[in-house]
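Exercise 7.
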Amino acid sequence: GTLRDYHPNVPIAHPRGENHLQKMDRNVKKEVDGFLHLEHVSCPMTIHAVSTSQQYIQTKNNPPLFTTSRDLRVQIEGLPEVPRWYHQQIKVGSYKTKAPLMIYWRDGLEVVKHLFANPVFAPCMDFQPYREFEGLDKQRAYREFMSADIAWEIQDKLPPGHLFVGVIGASDKTPLTIGTGNKEMHPLLISLTNIHAGV
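Solution. The predicted structure, written as C-alpha cells, is:
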C-alpha cells in the first residue's frame, strides 16, 4: 500500500463556494447509468457513444441559456475575466528587420493568480507538501513537486497557516506560419508546481 505523511504546517483554507465545473447533477448521472445498463444493449459502448449520450441528457435537462448569437455573446462577456494581453514593438538601435519585432505578454502575477484560483485545476492541485512511502518496506516515492524534499523545506520556513505557490517557466520556439512568411514565436509558458504534472 501507499502511506502519505503531510507536512504539519497546514494551510488555512478559505471557502470559495461550490465548484460548478466539477459537479455533475445526480439525476443526470443516474439517467446516464440507466441508459448504459439497459438490457437490450448487448455490445460494449464506445467512449464516443457514452460521451454523446451524456451530452444529450445534459442538454435535455439543462437547455442552453441563449437562443441567438447576441444572447451567446452576453453570456460569454459575463464570464470571469482572464489576464489581459499587452503588446509592444521592439526596436534595437539602428538594426533593421524585415518585419517589426513585436512582444505580446500578460502580467505574470495576474496569470499565477488566475491559475491558482481556477476551479478547473482544484481536483488536481496540491496545497500541502507530503512524503509518500510505498510497499511493505515503506520505500520513499517521489511523484509531484509537493512530494519533493525541497517543498517540505520551503513549507518549514513559512508562518503557520500559509502555503507557497511555485512557478514554472518554460520557453520553446514555435512556428506560426510555414511557406507564407515562416513566422516564428518564442513563447514563455507559465504553470504552477502545485498543479499535477500530468494536467
